[in-house]
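Justification of computing resources. Each target in the renewal requires a structure prediction run like the one illustrated here; the chain below, 888 residues long, is used simply to show the kind of job we budget for.
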Amino acid sequence: MKKTWDDIDPTETREWLDAFASLIRHEGNERASFIMEQLLGAAGKTGLTQGVGALTTPYCNTIPVDEEPDYPGNLELEQQIDAAIRWNAIVMVLRAKKEAGGVGGHLSSYASIASLYEVGMNHFFHGATEKTPGDLIYFQGHSSEGNYARAFLEGRLSEKHLQNFRQEIGGEGLSSYPHPWLMPTFWQFATVSLGLGPLQAIYQARFLKYLENRKLIEANHRKVWVFCGDGEMDEVDSVGALTVAAREELDNLIYVVNCNLQRLDGLVRGNGKIVQELESVFRGAGWNVIKVLWDSRWDKIFEKDTKGLLIKRLGEVVDGELQHAYLQGSDYTREFLADSNEELKALLAEFSDEDLAELNRGAHDPVKIYAAYDAAVKHKNQPTAILFQGVKGYGLGREHAEGRNIAHNQLEMNEAELKAFRDRFKLPLTDKQLANLDFLKLDENDPAMQYLQAQRKKLTGYLPARFSPKQPLKVPDLAAFDAILKGSGDRTMSTTMSLGRIFSVLVKDPVIGARIVPIFSDEVRTFGMESLFRQIGIYSHVGQLYIPEDKEQLMFYRESQDGQLLEEGITEAGCMASWIATATSYSTHAVPMIPFFTYYSMFGFQRVGDLIWAASDMRARGFLIGATAGRTTLEGEGLQHQDGQSLLAASAVPTCRAYDPTFGYEMAVIIQHGLKVMYEQEQDVIYYIMAMNEKYVQPEMPKGVEEGIIKGMYLFKKSDHPSKEKVQLMGSGAILREVIAAAELLEQDFGVAADVWSVPSFCELRREGLDVQRENMFAPGKTPKKTYVETCLEKHEGPVIAATDYVRATADLIRPFISRSYTVLGTDGYGRSDTRERLRHFFEVNRHYIVVAALYTLAQEGTIPASKVNDAMKKYNIDPEKPNPVTV
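Resulting structure tokens:
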């Protein structure tokens, strides 16, 4: 927290205030504003920037030269290491393009950020081992070539790996970007979807504090570093949670923003100054900000610029001018910096053309980088953002790509350009080695190689690296949920309420209770789970500094420093970032945690699908609960709240097991099974479970249905009606109860026997069915295996009718495995505000429409006359001219 200083000299303070008032009175507001600007500028030049009201500081380095620490490393050896890594990164891309035929890669991104990585790797980034967790580094996704090139020097990757960059199918290849799913012992975090790395890093840093405050890990000095570009900061995800980091006082978090002024197609802010813009954003959000704009060669010029004229000039030019000047040479630079100012001309006259030609940006100066990192890791009570100004494509040659708009798309270098690169970085390569694009491997006795290994040993291990120690947890048996399995008796209860009862069981479990992490986006009371407030408390890093107004109530709002529940506020993206940190904790912190993120289902896969995909890539384990699920269960909520498609989206995520339970016992079986799979068997999957707010009597679990629930389908009710006309009715979630009612109507009103199937997961049925189809295709001489759907239905006659609260494509997922008539009803179209009864009529998924669909299918097969369909529509007041809900 910021300190409030007592006024030790009120008289002096009054004199300053009186003088300022006199300035305004006699000189006017414009003059007063100018003086204020000069004072703030002077404060910035001394490093005095916090608490003085300025959101931006002068366009110069934040840390004065006389406050820079001595550089602790061997710059000559580090330059050799840096050069070798740069070369191997380039060769990797060029060879992949040449030999594999256009698999792509990036030359300029790593070239720009290389020094920022290397100073960290040599002096700051603590590695992880199987026993010791290290710093958490969110590497820039598009610079993965540099990570591979360093790992090659370290001996962690072979030359064959590098030769197979972006060629993974045959084995021993390297993924294009950071993908833990594809390289589970190398990458920790999926960051290439721009904006997700910064967002995840904030909540990861907070999760570290959460684990410490709950005494689940010991307090430590681990840092969370996130590397991103200035262009990436345009992503809402990159900046949307900055105030969270400040509010939580996350001094374990460091943003490193590589401001090379360029994005993929051109300048980030050609008509503005992106560094200044970002500084104001971070400062305004409450961050500590360090700017590193100019390298050490500028120091002598700035030292002689006693009036600050050059800094003023640099602060006035827009980025487009600055980038243009970088490419024009020393003559242009001299004129550009002077800008017809005689004093600046005189100042620059003291420096030769060679001096001006060597001026560079701070992102490529290890001394300046070290000073910034050192200040960042020592800063307390605030997160730190370091804004480095660099050059995209640095080292690739100004005539080639360096600093040019085409830099991002540059994938080739000719022989002359390769020679220029070799000479610039003093690489020990012959012309033949250049022409052959040979990788550069340092001998183990080479001083540079010994230095590289010694520095990593000092920092306890290599990075990036991912560990996944075996830590199976004993989860409760299904019997622990007996109260849910027995049903609700005469009481009505929603599956969301059942979920609350399941939580109550889980948090009391002696083994996993403390590891349960309920996560909500401000809707705990909406979901009827406010009992968790008192039971386990809401996490707050400062505890509860106030008396809640509902203190006298049984379920009052209780915040606590060791609180277990994460209530993130109205931010589904923030909740997902917290969920990912929790769901990967078994690897990143060697502490398996069990997250349950409960949210409006409409705001899940539709809203944060990219984060869910990243979580799957990162081998997350945990539960996502799509509450208030379905398109017709939300009374009055309307179009943007009613979810009809998230199960379909979930079916496309390879590691997602998606379920739509109707009854509490189904939910209990699914959650207990998920716990066993993820935390006893340690499988890298996630469970997506729908929960509804509609209340109805919860039946007792029938005997022997557990396996069917997990596989996705079981016979809920077998008809005992003697009719020869038979149908098989399927349903899930809210609409299964309509299916059950439809079966009764078919028997009572039309004499048709109807078996009822509960289908908690069309997604799992499809997954199993596709596996069986594939197995059969590759074994043409053998008797084909039957899918689980076929096995279930083989002894049950009649066409199949399925109805859900989701778009028809959801139930259509199993159509390939049904070799008879299959009719699907669903809620295609936009939602409406109305009662459940009227909504189900509108979407044509209620019991009456299910009856009509069943009768129509029988009529199509010639089993019954078509007149019966008309009879049903007349009986149930169904208007055949009713508008199609898909199009209205």
